[in-house]
Amino acid sequence: MEILRIELMILTKTIFEEGTSRNGSWSDKQLKCFGIGKDKQKGWKNGIIGKDFPKEVIERYVALKDAHLPNLADAEDESSLLFKWFWALTMYCWFDSNQKTEGI
């Protein structure tokens, strides 16, 4: 019979902060790692920091950091396209308005 060994790790404040997203929050998937639901009770962070969890659970929590947020590279591409579209529209309107006033 094989004995299943689970390596435990203490969730320190430093490790917990390492999993905080660039927006300063956590996804539902991350919090589920520690048994925290959407209806978080006051003091939920103090209830998990300093406690033992399986090492794999803590690693998954940290790996899920920012997974719920849009990719910054995609956002930059989209904003760049938006800027180009806005610039083209502005130039079109400016050119169109100059065409109309030249004959006056």
Overview of this protein structure:
With 104 residues, the protein is mostly helical. 54% of the residues lie in helices and 6% in strands. 8% of the residues are buried.
How would you summarize what this structure contains?
This protein is mainly α. The protein contains 5 helices and 2 strands; from the N terminus they run E-H-H-H-E-H-H. It has a two-stranded antiparallel sheet with strand order 1-2.
SSE class: mainly alpha
Number of helices: 5
Number of strands: 2
Query: How many strands, what sense, and barrel or not for the largest sheet?
Result: 2 strands, antiparallel
Strand content: 5-15%
First CA to last CA: what distance?
96 Å
Radius of gyration, in angstroms, nearest whole number: 25 Å
Helix content: 40-55%
Overall outline: elongated
Q: What attributes does this structure have?
A:
6% strand; mainly alpha; 104 residues; single chain; 2 strands
Please outline the helices and strands:
Layout lengths: L7 E3 L2 H6 L9 H5 L11 H5 L3 E3 H9 L8 H31 L2
